[in-house]
Amino acid sequence: MAAPPRRDDSRIIIHFDYDCFYASVFEAENPVLKSLPLAVQQKQIIATCNYEARRRGLKKLQLVREAKQICPEVVVVLGEDLTRFRDASKELHAFLRSFIWGDRVEKLGFDEVFLDVTEMIEYNVELLNAHDLLNSFFHLDKLDPTAGFAFDATKFSGPTFPPSTDTPAPAVSSLAKGFGDPLRLRLLLASHLARYLRNELEYQKGYTASVGVSTSKMLAKLAGNVHKPSSQTTLLPPYLATGPDEESNVTRFLDSHDIGKVPGIGYKLAHRLRAHILCHDSDLGPHETPTPLTDNKVTVHDVRCFPNMGPLLLEKILGGPGSPKDIGTKVWGLINGVDTSEVSAARDIPTQISIEDSYGTLDTFDAVKKALVSLAASLIRRVRTDLTEEGRDDAMQPEENKSSSIKRIRWLAHPRTLRLSTRTRSPPDLNGTRSHIYNRVSRSGPVPQFLFNLDDNIDALAERLVHENILPMFRKLHPERADWHLSLLNIAVTNMVETAGEHKHSSGRDIEKMFRRQETGLLRPWKVADSDINLTEHDVQGTPTASSKWKDDKLDPTHECPRPLRDSSTDVVFTGDMADGAWVDSDGEDSTWSEPCRFCGVLIPHFASVAHELYHTVPE
Fold it and tell me: Residue 62 — φ and ψ, nearest 5°?
């Protein structure tokens, strides 16, 4: 067996998995449902159900008919429209993100979130008072010392693996003397942060979650599955074996897991590994469905301890055409508890927006068009929801009128590519059964500009989008007139181009908003505005008249102006030649700012007079 890969346990990762998410969304809308058996229906199956329904014998992916027979009092709600789930997921993601420094928050599906809290933990470790760990304080904000929560730094919060009775928490004295394990101390603080975030999520949003705490995404996700629901698990050190005959807690934790349960090892990879361990033929085509093996369970321990197991053998088992590069090295790391994948920084803009639905069969043009229009309408709604933001148009409003400013909707990004994907259903064989087809065919084109008209009706836009853009792509994919046997349609927009704005991911500054802000914001006192001036207040000699006397009588009306008066909005100067009070032609030469050359008589500006005289003194 090859040596295990090198570990890097410098990070602290917390994984959130919302409990019965689909059902919890309905329970948050109607709290009465929390005490009732609740099932969410999609098509003819139970997509999920709450724990009260599971206690009465229901389970996921069960036929609705069977569920009602087992539990007649079950409350069944339709969940085929994913809008409410998508909105709730975004709300919870934004809520958790508001606590985490550096935006290291990654959403996985609707109901899972990874949090990289390394910076927060390291900062709070430095602030720990080793002589008063019982009364520690976790700081949530570097700039606000009052933002945070009190906790007991002498013990972990919540369950651990192994249980705390097997590996007791460090004594106060050992930590005070600096003998504590640094990794253990960081995980201890992370367990209290996880508990605080779980409580805030439940009290403020009404959702519970199962949480895992470790040093990688894989270990944190698996740790969160140990105690469910509404609980948490911290994977304790040591993460490295302390002796040749010793096992680390990571190895003890992973070895009992089925190989297919390890994140990063999908169904086909797990099938190939099981086939090799159990001496089955594992040759599969790139699109061939694996045949289920026997009920023999193949664990991580079985694979890791198999003779000659290592990256090279795994590459031989799992490699081949279409396989990811270095798949053997990656899987060898996973079964040894090493996962270096980063928690991606949170994105405000999705990389693509996709809507799809599956069908029994679509064979006629009218049925296809109706389905495409429905999908297009849903896509436009999602595009408007995910790619626009509503803000107050207060750049044109004075400070005293900010409360009455108009709300504007602006685009955060514009998709450039429209894609249509379809999947056909294979014809039945002689026995009447159909083999599954996983391949999709797709066609792409540019997104039409009319899609960004926010004032247009969504249904009208959907009809136009299907007629002008999607149906031509469909005809290129399926030139036949009928009998397509379609089982799936997908419409997506991709290739997002972010617009100008003030977000850190924006492509630039919003020039329109910048100019409006200059007109009404900080530069307002220096704004140059066109205005009329009453020339009768000044005589032709540039001296004030009696009517221009200051109200406080601080200016003597007989006092002469030291220089010609100038209007605040122009550079026009009033001189004695303006007997009729007319404006000076702005295209003419202003003698006040020029003087005639004593050599040639040409009017020369003051700033150029010296250089002009030098010109005359230079011999030809």
Answer: -95, 145
**From CA 557, how far away is CA 346, in angstroms rounded?**
68
Question: Rounded to 5 degrees, what are φ and ψ at 232?
Answer: -150, 160
Walk me through the domains of the chain, giving residue ranges and CATH numbers: 6-166+177-235 (3.30.70.270), 256-281+292-346 (1.10.150.20), 352-389+410-498 (3.30.1490.100), 594-619 (no CATH)
Q: What letter does residue 244 receive in the DSSP assignment? A: T
| Entry pTM | 0.73
The yes-or-no answer on residue 126 being catalytic is no
The residues facing 494 across adjacent strands are 417
Candidates 348, 609, 390; CA nearest to 496 is 348
Question: Which position among 73, 112, 400, 502 bears the catalytic label?
Answer: 112
Q: 497-510: string of b/e by CB count within 10 Å (b at 16+)?
A: ebbebeeeebeeeb
Range in 392-396, 565-569, 614-618 the model is least confident about: 565-569
pLDDT tens, residue by residue, 353-389: 999 998 888 888 999 999 999 999 999 999 998 898 8
CA distance 575 to 590: 10
Sheet holding 13-18, edge to edge: 105-108, 112-116, 13-18, 209-214, 232-235, 160-161
Closest CA to 247 of 256, 258, 259, 238: 238
Task: Judge contact between 45 and 61, C-beta under 8 A.
Answer: yes
- Measured from the Cβ of residue 45, the count of other Cβ atoms closer than 10 Å reads 16
Give residue-wise pLDDT tens across range 494-525. Answer: 999 988 765 555 555 556 665 655 555 555 56
